[in-house]
From TrEMBL:
Keywords: Membrane, Transmembrane, Transmembrane helix. PANTHER family: HIG1 DOMAIN FAMILY MEMBER 2A (PTHR12297:SF18), HYPOXIA-INDUCBILE GENE 1 HIG1 -RELATED (PTHR12297). This is HIG1 domain-containing protein. It is found in: Mitochondrion membrane. It comes from Myodes glareolus.
Length: 106
């Protein structure tokens, strides 16, 4: 049987309060940025991601429109185009992550 542990003098964990971690600040920016500011900053950091997202949405929309009109061959082509645009977007995200990781190294 294990020996009982000594009672800690520290206060118990309070889930209503954020934990204090030495040397860590929850945000790098001095003022909280809104959705618009964050979107503009992220777009400037990696402009290919929004382009890929727009291409994906456009191919999907046009493909659904062609499907509704009964143009099944063109709809099938647009769905394949959508997959290519999604692949482009994923590659852009990965390249952006790699570039930001390389930039943050000293």
């Amino acid at each position: 049987m294990a020996a009982p542990r000594p009672v800690s003098s520290e206060a118990p964990f309070d889930p209503s309060q954020a934990p204090v971690i030495e040397g860590f600040s929850p945000t790098v920016y001095s003022n909280p940025e809104g959705f618009k500011e964050k979107f503009i900053r992220k777009t400037r950091e990696n402009p290919m991601v929004p382009i890929g997202c727009l291409g994906t949405a456009a191919a999907l929309s046009y493909g659904l429109y062609c499907f509704h009109r009964g143009q099944s061959h063109r709809s099938q082509i647009m769905m394949r185009t959508r997959i290519a645009a999604q692949g482009f977007t994923v590659v852009a995200i990965l390249l952006g992550l790699a570039a930001s990781a390389m930039k943050s190294r000293p």
